[in-house]
Amino acid sequence: MNAPAMKDQALTADAELAAQPPLLEVRGLRVSLGGREVVHGIDFSLAPGEKLAIVGESGSGKTVSALSLLRLLPQARLSGSVRLQGRELLTLAEPELRLLRGSAVAYVFQEPMSALNPLLTLGQQIAEVLQLHRGLAGASARARVLELLASVGLPDPLAQARAYPHQLSGGQRQRALIAMALASEPRLLVADEPTTALDASLRLQMLALLDEMRLRLGLAVLIITHDLNLVRHFADRVLVMKDGLVVEQGAVAAVFAAPTQPYTRTLLNSLPRRELAPADPATRPDHPACLEAEALQVSYPVALPGWRGWFRRGRQLALEGVDLRLPAGQTLGVVGESGSGKTTLALAALGLLPHQGRLRVLGQDWLDLARPEQRRLRRRVQVVFQDPYASLSPRLTLEQIVAEGLQVHEPGLSRAERLVRVLAALREVGLLAGLAPAEQQAWLQRYPHEFSGGQRQRIAIARALVIEPQLIVLDEPTSALDVTVQQQVIALLLRLQRERGLSYLLITHDMAVVWAMAHQITVLRAGRVVEQGEALSVLRAPRMPYTRSLVQASGL
């Protein structure tokens, strides 16, 4: 079928679905947590096959509202009405509601590593859904598992079905989670940041998959997201939330073209801005590089199939023949699809993986150094991870988290001296501003769960800065943040780079972040460099088809 015919067919299907009664009706929904109302009487509805996006900053009530639809917050007090095909859910008996969870309504959560069981393979977890909600078992369940994994674009479905969550990349885990949600063929899919861990091209694939399932099953999709590009390309309607209230809603095209509320305009104008300082003389070929790789190769041990795996293990190449150079005081953006080797490169740069070839960090190779020398180099190389909630210990206070590096690398400091350095680092990242000394002390005794997502990421940056490194590895530093906070964190990182002369190795799938932050770009695919060069040159005129596909998929 040609493209115009497919488009006509989709429009016809959409018209037929829109003519049906609402699948979901929410009226006056109020949610209270800990005696405080956080959602204040919101109204919206979804027709079968409709795609509704809920957007807003962290703390606006998006996720709380979505979880309350099936009463997934036991500690919450709910009032109002939530009706699924005319059936009231807020007063439904728990056994009946349990039958709807996962069958009529399925959820895709933001952090797949938390949502997936680490003790079961992907195949076992998807098969469990098929058995509970579709009555499939044995060979028929195994065959359906492989179909689902293939449908979400995972290569070698049989190998993926046998893998445990920790053996997959973040993007692969997210696709597996989507496959699990679709296994029961629900009528409503609630997706909380379903593409956060995916690169731009895979985002388009996931959106196409959801659209195909929507048309085939009459599936309604409720997406919670901060990705405005996703909303623009996927959703029919958008609902904007702020402080637990709906401030604007309507057709996506109308809201994006002419928003009526200042808050909506703020969100739409919060795209990353390129405010890089001009490249300094460090770009000269003869200037010492902060990070340099030549013919870099990294491999992992893997089990061989069949009886051979009983006696020896094979090797899987994750990086092969990689050459790159990061001048001091600049940012090298490393981009590529999930599984391309980006995180492997970051771990090698941090001295956490053995390698072959040449990899020099601040003029030294990790493999040439004894343990005491490695510790001295490690102080000059720090990392900021993708998810600050996972990377910050929930058992340590703010003071203990930021001071941890000082205790390791400067054990001779007194607590008072450490406290001075901790406070300076926190102020430098924009925390504690305007607080009285007593309030600052109270903040220092807080735990990570008491901070917002943006504040946690600033804490992670302060932890890296406090020991005054020269190179910071940024592993998806903004992908878990909403657009306004993302812009703030990017501006903070750029300011720190200008003031401290920091070098960044930026690992990301977000081409907009690369555009805003990177001086140079290296594009990886299947462990190999396919293109590299000056950032604006690569983004404006990519030479390789693969790079062009990444740029086009990002909407730049």
Number of strands: 20
Low-confidence blocks of residues: 1-7
CATH topology of the largest domain: Rossmann fold
| Nearest-integer average pLDDT | 86
What best-fitting shape do the alpha-carbon axes yield? globular
Overall structural domain count: 4
Roughly how many Å is the radius of gyration?
25 Å
Spatial strand arrangement across the major sheet: 6-7-8-3-9-10
- Main CATH class of the largest domain: Alpha Beta
What is the beta-strand fraction? 15-25%
Task: Give the distance, in angstroms, between the N- and C-terminal Cα atoms.
Answer: 30 Å
**Major sheet attributes:** 6 strands, mixed
Helix % is: 40-55%
The number of helical runs is: 23
Judging by the overall fold, what is the CATH architecture of the largest domain? 3-Layer(aba) Sandwich
State the CATH superfamily name of the largest domain. P-loop containing nucleotide triphosphate hydrolases
Class per helix and strand makeup: alpha/beta
Structure in a nutshell:
The protein is of the alpha/beta class and 556 residues long.
Summarize the topology.
Elements: H1 3-18, E1 24-33, E2 36-46, E3 51-55, H2 62-68, E4 77-84, E5 87-88, H3 94-100, E6 105-108, H4 112-115, H5 122-134, H6 138-151, H7 157-161, H8 170-182, E7 188-192, H9 200-217, E8 220-224, H10 228-234, E9 237-242, E10 245-251, H11 252-257, H12 262-268, E11 289-303, E12 313-327, E13 331-335, H13 342-349, E14 356-361, E15 364-365, H14 371-379, E16 381-384, H15 388-391, H16 398-409, H17 415-428, H18 437-444, H19 453-465, E17 471-475, H20 483-500, E18 503-507, H21 511-517, E19 520-525, E20 528-534, H22 535-540, H23 545-554
Parallel strand pairs: 3-8, 3-9, 6-7, 7-8, 13-18, 13-19, 16-17, 17-18
Antiparallel strand pairs: 1-2, 1-4, 4-5, 9-10, 11-12, 11-14, 14-15, 19-20
Helix pairs in contact: 5-6, 5-8, 6-8, 9-23, 16-17, 16-19, 17-19
